[in-house]
Write a structure and sequence with these properties.
By secondary structure, this protein is mainly alpha-helical. Helices cover 49% and strands 8% of the residues.
Length: 106
């Protein structure tokens, strides 16, 4: 878990990352962070992109972290069963979708 991502977003920083750890769980490229491929040019371009949208990305990052937690509470098995059904049916699943699942509310 890259805690630096969580901490930076909580502090209102425009976070630039590679495709690693839980950044892929809560990070939405161009919305609350900039996710790069990890090579030098991609990271450089990611920093440039983040600077151009620093206020929007930083504010969205803080908003994301206000609601962030480490996973669905309640019955995780039912949630993951539902999630895999959605994937197999090729349906789009919203980030933090477990918050709308009655079996996952604490």
């Amino acid at each position: 878990t890259p805690n630096c991502a969580l901490e930076a977003m909580c502090c209102g920083c425009a976070y630039v990352s590679t495709k690693t750890g839980n950044v892929l769980e809560f990070g939405v490229n161009g919305y609350n962070c900039v996710i790069t491929d990890g090579d030098d040019e991609s990271i450089f371009n990611g920093v440039v992109d983040a600077r151009e949208s620093v206020e929007v990305i930083a504010n969205n990052g803080v908003g994301t972290m206000v609601d962030w937690n480490y996973g669905p509470p309640g019955n995780r098995a039912l949630y993951y069963f539902w999630l895999f059904e959605q994937i197999l049916e090729k349906k789009w699943v919203a980030p933090f979708s477990y918050r709308r699942m009655p079996f996952c509310r604490s």
